[in-house]
Automatic annotation (TrEMBL):
Its main location: membrane. It is a multi-pass membrane protein. InterPro entries: AA-Vitamin_Transporters, EamA_dom, EmrE-like. Keywords: Membrane, Transmembrane, Transmembrane helix. Residues 16-146, 156-287 form the EamA domain. Belongs to the EamA transporter family. This is EamA family transporter. It is found in: Membrane. The chain crosses the membrane at residues 47-66, 78-95, 101-119, 131-150, 156-176, 188-210, 216-236, 245-266, 272-290. PANTHER family: EAMA DOMAIN-CONTAINING PROTEIN (PTHR32322:SF2), INNER MEMBRANE TRANSPORTER (PTHR32322).
Length: 316
């Protein structure tokens, strides 16, 4: 495999991760709007997100001729993904109820790449590269500044948010290794349906009545299609050629996009620390996405080994 192909594969994977992060950023606004219009509990909103995203993904799979009986390996993967979807959503919204949206989001999204970096370091028995550490520290620091809240944190809320971040990290690790016959959209569709089904009993108890009004249905459809089905499919697609830590870092584009949308459409004003955090977050993510390749030595055996490591990196 040539170096140019590896770099092209990395570029496509990075682009898919960026798309996923940006699309996720529209989910906060559309999810809040759906909850407001329909009078739904946040957990019911999350349940609708998974169910509608699963239906949208399944329709796409059916139209493109991808419906087929899953293998045992694919079925195991889908059950795990669905369980992680449900665990992640339930833990996150429980954290929100005990703390706040700002603290829960910051802890959840910020802890995920840290967990992945630690796991990767333990697995490989080597310290992460300097560019990874710079991107990691800068991204988390930028997120703290962007979503900083002066309110006192609730320890139980922090713990649940960390569980949510760990669940997202495990989801990233699990889906980073593809299963034959199971593409990114099929993983998203069936995984969302399984996760939504697991959350439905609790959400039904809290109330899931959805008013059949045009504006409610439009927001619900957007919520299920764009920041859920399309975003997670792009994320799983990007993980096929990127390191899991980079995948988790792409999730930090979600609060950045949400902040930009709030400024543009809700006329919110950014404080100086939040503006600094946004700039730092963009710079740190840029380091993670466009870090330079290590130079290969001129000796033939070492150069061949270096090319092989590049190929493996492009596949991660």
């Amino acid at each position: 495999m040539s170096v140019s192909f590896v770099l092209s594969s990395r570029a496509r994977s990075s682009a898919a991760l960026v798309v996923a992060g940006v699309l996720w950023g529209t989910g906060g606004l559309s999810g809040a709007l759906l909850g407001q219009l329909a009078g739904l509990h946040p957990l019911a909103v999350a349940t609708y997100r998974l169910l509608l995203g699963g239906v949208a993904g399944l329709l796409y799979v059916a139209v493109t001729g991808g419906l087929r009986t899953p293998t045992r390996a694919a079925l195991r993967r889908l059950l795990v993904v669905g369980g992680l979807f449900a665990f992640f959503q339930a833990s996150y919204f429980a954290a929100v109820s005990l703390s706040s949206v700002s603290i829960a989001t910051m802890t959840t999204i910020g802890s995920s790449p840290i967990v992945l970096a630690v796991v990767s370091a333990v697995r490989s028995r080597r310290v992460p590269r300097p560019y990874t550490l710079v991107s990691l520290v800068g991204s988390v620091g930028g997120l703290v500044l962007l979503r900083w809240s002066a309110e006192a944190p609730h320890l139980a809320g922090i713990a649940l948010a960390f569980l949510a971040g760990t669940g997202f990290a495990v989801l990233t690790l699990v889906t980073a290794k593809p299963v034959p016959g199971l593409d990114s959209m099929a993983t998203t569709a069936y995984g969302c349906l399984v996760g939504g089904a697991l959350l439905t009993p609790v959400a039904a108890y809290l109330g899931m009545a959805l008013p059949l009004h045009l504006d409610v249905l439009f927001v619900a459809a957007y919520f299920g299609i764009v920041p859920t089905a399309a975003a997670y499919a792009a994320y799983f697609r990007g993980l096929a050629g990127a390191h899991p830590v980079l995948g988790a870092l792409s999730a930090l584009l979600e609060p950045l996009t949400a902040t930009i949308l709030s400024v543009a459409f809700l006329h919110e004003r950014l404080s100086a620390p939040a503006l600094t955090g946004a700039v730092l977050l963009v710079a740190a993510l840029a380091v993670g996405y466009w870090r330079p390749e290590p130079r290969c030595p001129s000796a033939a055996p070492a150069a061949a080994a270096c090319r092989g490591s590049r190929t493996d990196a492009g596949r991660r």
